[in-house]
UniProtKB/TrEMBL annotation:
It is found in: Membrane. Residues 215-226 have a biased composition (Low complexity). The lineage of its organism: Bacteria, Bacillati, Actinomycetota, Actinomycetes, Kitasatosporales. It holds the Pfam family Rhomboid. It comes from Streptomyces griseoruber. This is Rhomboid family intramembrane serine protease. One of its GO terms (cellular component) is membrane. Keywords: Hydrolase, Membrane, Protease, Transmembrane, Transmembrane helix. It is a multi-pass membrane protein. Gene3D superfamilies: Rhomboid-like.
């Protein structure tokens, strides 16, 4: 009976770290915007991603921190924090790897396919990457709670996909699409590879004429290994619901 408590404690600790990581990340983005604004947005022009320009390839890692205006950063801040937190609360190290992957795929999509030598900056590529990761992570990890979170996020923010398709005016849909692809890829690359132990049937109580305790039909029981609902019962047991 110690495992559900231990798992809950680990999850709460990781969620706490995720909150402070995203708070710090958002604070850094706003500090960069202050410097960007004070310098008449010269850093955004200098460190943005320009399609086909070899010199701007290193800017794949700087462009997400830069924005073209206060309205630009304000529109990105809320979704960045929400999706970033949900992407990070299962593990901050995994989240950092995901962020690097998404920054690269989002920037490369712009660098390879954007036309007109446009300079592209902004955290929206990261937002789309985190969104894609959160939506499908539970499926790859076979985790019930994360799957439910993904369903809720997909239903609530499906409209985001309208700015990841060709022809959207005023936005870099390629950065969005590249970030989304990176998030989906990251969900598979950073999936939980640990094998979860199979649920076992509790030992039956002896000396009772009314049948054995802990059978699959009794309340509070856990299905034995191989049972169709064994994985579901294991998830509920880890959460302390069985």
């Amino acid at each position: 009976m110690d495992r559900p408590t231990s798992d809950a404690q680990v999850m709460v600790a990781e969620a706490r770290k995720a909150f402070f990581v995203m708070f710090g990340f958002l604070a850094l983005v706003w500090l960069v915007q202050l410097a960007n604004f004070a310098d008449d947005y010269a850093p955004a022009r200098e460190y943005g991603v320009v399609s086909g320009d070899l010199g701007s390839l290193p800017h794949l890692l700087t462009a997400p921190f830069l924005h073209w205006s206060w309205a630009h950063i304000e529109s990105n801040s809320g979704p960045l924090f929400i999706f970033g937190f949900l992407a990070a609360y299962r593990g901050v190290l995994r989240f950092l790897g995901l962020s690097l992957l998404v920054a690269v795929t989002s920037g490369l999509a712009v660098w390879l396919f954007e036309g007109g030598n446009a300079e592209t900056v902004g955290a929206s590529g990261l937002i789309f990457g985190y969104f894609g990761y959160v939506v499908v992570r539970g499926l790859f990890d076979r985790h019930l709670i994360d799957t439910l979170i993904g369903v809720v996020m997909a239903a609530s923010f499906a409209y985001l996909l309208t700015v990841a398709v060709p022809g959207t005016p005023g936005v870099s849909w390629l950065a969005h699409l590249g970030g989304l692809a990176g998030g989906l890829l990251g969900a598979w690359l950073f999936r939980d590879r640990t094998r979860r132990p199979s649920a076992k049937t509790p030992p039956a109580s002896s000396g009772s004429s009314g049948g054995s305790a802990g059978t699959s039909g009794s309340p509070g029981s856990i299905a034995p290994a191989g049972h169709p609902r064994a994985d579901l019962h294991k998830e509920l047991g880890d959460l302390g619901l069985l």
